[in-house]
Amino acid sequence: MDINSKIFKAIIKNRLIRKTLAKLSHYYFFHIYLAHHIQYETAPFQKEIISITENFKQKFAILLAFRGSAKSTLVSLSYTIWSVIGKQNLKFILLISQTQGQARQLLANIKSEFESNELLRKDFGPFEDSNEIWRSNSLVLARYKSKIMAASLGESIRGYKHGQYRPQLIILDDIEDNNSIRTKDSRDKTYNFVTSDVIPAGDIETKYLLVGNLLHSDSVVMRFKNEIEDGDRDGIIKKYPFWDKDKKPLWATKFNTKKSIEKLKKRVGNDKIFRQEYLLEIVSNEEQVIERKWIQRYDKLPLFVGNGYRYTAIGVDLAISDKDSANFTSFVAAHVFGRGENLKIYILPHPVNKRMKFSETEDQLKALVESLGGKERVKIYIESVGYQEAFAQRMSQLGYYAYGVSVHSASKRERLLFVSNTVRAGKSVFPPSGTSELEDQMVNFGVEKYDDLADAFSILIKKIMEEDKQSDGPIIVRSSGLYQSVQINRHCYTNHLGLMKKDWADREDQEIFKKYGMKNPRRIYGLP
User: Fold this and answer.
1) Tens digits of per-residue pLDDT, 143-153?
2) Which of 88, 279, 384, 492 is at a distance of 20 to 30 A from 136, taking alpha carbons?
3) In whole numbers, what is the pLDDT of the chain averaged over residues?
4) Are 328 and 437 a contacting pair, CB within 8 Å?
């Protein structure tokens, strides 16, 4: 039913109907009794948040939404009241915020509705009781035999009960900020308090709602998110950034023009804050290595013939374990065209990023090579350190063009910084879609929990750049319909069409052709 329809307005005028609807539905309760909080039409994502509150079978939910999305109004204010007077009929609700001041403010907002909302008081009041004193950290509703309490992080909540009830609903509202996530010790402290004090404060039927934002790859929100995704904790995660992938605002009735969006961005005034608070991106406190605006895209891949195609390569970052807590094994592939100023690296979509055992890694890499044209065309670049160097030797023994890439003592950040200019200069270009995870790791490097794709990308680009500087390095020649990469003396080389510029190579080159089973290039190309 349209909330603005004449029928709905008529329903509101009927006390019995509006009370009945409000008890049955949090959605109707909010739009009838807290309508003074509504300035714009309720957005689909807000309706979804409301539906999550109505589903008491859903016991654990993380709700991440942009600043100003009304998430606290819907959950900590409206749902808290409705959970008492509505059909859920809860007896003990616990609100937790980061500081005591924030917790008391949440309670003060609820108290204000009980004291001054005339329609709410008329239909569901009175709420005060002469025998009960409303305190700054608790409200007792004698008529409903219910209690609403507010507490801050670190405050002792062990053994909290109201009558025979332990907290039946626990709402954690913005329990982290940039200061609290700055060090691992403080993040551990918050996480330990939530897991060892807050969650045990409830019972088996308690509903937990965690409302907040993404501030750090190791924050409490992210730890819970990872536990849910790994199957270690039951629950759901809902993420509502300011706009969708097409940059259309989720709250379209409030931000319905480009002017309104620009006005918001100017009011925020800081791109980092906007990305963090509104786009729900984890933003590093360190200088960003690669900016998203640098990323350039190609519409389609160029033809191999006539465009300076040289070879195809795969950057490999190996993990040493397939356990859930381990890093991922990542493959990032690209086609390489041109040299020097004309160098162009076309990153291919859908890089591999998964936890794999050794045998599976080898099989996956073989399959990827085959899909890109086979071992005659594709080079494999693997970091030449320990286990990874051994893997490169293994692939080389199997007949693949596998090369170890020396990173010396450079950190992952330094490696990415080393190749970042190829992105900024448009030498490394990306497909229209299929590399979002890789791009996120590069753009958010230093704050994302995993950086395996970014490291595979660094290895790939570093080796391509090194080979580009080698004037007598590998080139591509054509043999029996296949491209092969061979080390050829400078006296024998190709132009962008792959045709021999010199009539013939010296004896050293002939030996190399023989080694790789290649025919006389004069016959292949019809040269004299």
Assistant:
1) 999 999 999 99
2) 88
3) 84
4) no
